[in-house]
Structures are given as C-alpha cells and as structure tokens.
Design goal:
The longest helix has 24 residues. The chain contains eight helices and no strands. The protein has about 190 residues and is mainly α.
C-alpha cells in the first residue's frame, strides 16, 4: 500500500507539480480511502520527503546507467554523470523542483532523504577522484571541485527547466548540448 501511494504521489508531482500534491489527492489516485495515506505518512511533509527520495533514487539510476556507457574512461564517466543530471531535470522538472525545493531543504529532519541526496553527490565525488587519478585534472581539493561541478550542472538544469535558454533547452537533446558545452568548459579549466 505504501508503495502504491508513493507511486501515485510521484505521478501527481510529475504531471501537475508539487502544488497538486495532497494526501487526499494521493488517496484518490491510488483508489483508497482518504485516511489510508495517514497510515504510511505522518503528514504532507513526510509525503513530500518520500517523493523527493524517490526522485534522488531515479536520478542516481539515470546517472549510473549513463556512466556505464563509458566504463574505461574515468573523465568521460564524470562528465556523463553531469549530463545525466541535467537531462533528468529536463525530463522530470516538477520532480526535480521537489527534490531541491524548500519543502525538502531540511534533510537533517529526514535521514533517508539525506542519505539518497548524499548518495548522488558521493557518486559524483567518486567519479571526480577517479578522473583526477587517471587524467590531467588538477588534484586540488576534490570536495571543492565536486561542489563547483555540482553547482554548474545544477544551475544549468534550473536555467533549462525555467526556460531561460529558450524552448530548445527545455528538450532533453537541447539541454544535453548545453551541458556538454558547459562541462567541456569546466574540464578545460580543471587541466593541470
């Protein structure tokens, strides 16, 4: 039942945005009594955190699938993780907004959400360290470079889903082109 409710919640967010997400709407979509969600989620904040957690799981799966395309090239794997990040945001803008929205900003209040969010950043950090070891990427503080790379792809993702680069960038293909250009510029700046 919990997973059915969560699936319904994710679908509501994807289709209609976070503003449409209520425990009653989830109950309707899952075709259960309006009290059923309260047996699995204490309140709307708990439901939103669960939706965000699902979003981070999906993002991580997309990143992992994309980096598997280039198993022998650590630099390409790191870059592809960023491309996947931007592509995920463009494919799932409403879900992406929930993942990083003010409702989920306090991840300390939800350790499971915090673990999923940190898992995405941890994956990027591991890929960065592999890139530093195998290629001519500066060996500065990996955490700071990781934060810089994350800021770049996150900012680009938000600009794309907000339509700041025009309608072309709201398509996955257009957003990927911009992401390749931006991450290419980042890599040029990271050369030793």
């Amino acid at each position: 039942m919990r997973q059915a409710l969560l699936d319904a919640a994710v679908e509501i967010v994807r289709r209609d945005g976070a503003g449409a997400l209520t425990l009653r709407a989830v109950a309707r979509a899952a075709r259960v009594s309006h009290m059923a969600p309260y047996h699995h989620f204490a309140d709307k904040a708990a439901l939103v955190a669960a939706v965000a957690r699902e979003g981070f799981r999906g993002l991580r799966r997309e990143m992992e699938a994309r980096i598997e395309r280039c198993p022998d090239d650590p630099r390409a794997r790191f870059r592809e993780s960023g491309i996947a990040y931007v592509a995920f945001a463009v494919k799932h803008p409403n879900l992406f907004r929930v993942m990083f929205g003010p409702e989920t900003a306090d991840t300390d209040a939800n350790p499971e959400l915090q673990a999923e969010a940190r898992g995405v950043f941890g994956l990027m950090q591991r890929l960065l360290k592999q890139s530093q070891a195998g290629y001519a990427i500066r060996e500065d503080d990996a955490r700071q470079i990781g934060l810089t790379a994350w800021s770049l792809v996150h900012g680009l993702a938000m600009l794309c889903i907000d339509g700041q680069f025009g309608p072309e960038a709201t398509s996955p293909a257009g957003a990927e082109r911009l992401a390749y250009a931006a991450t290419g510029a980042l890599f040029r700046g990271l050369r030793r």
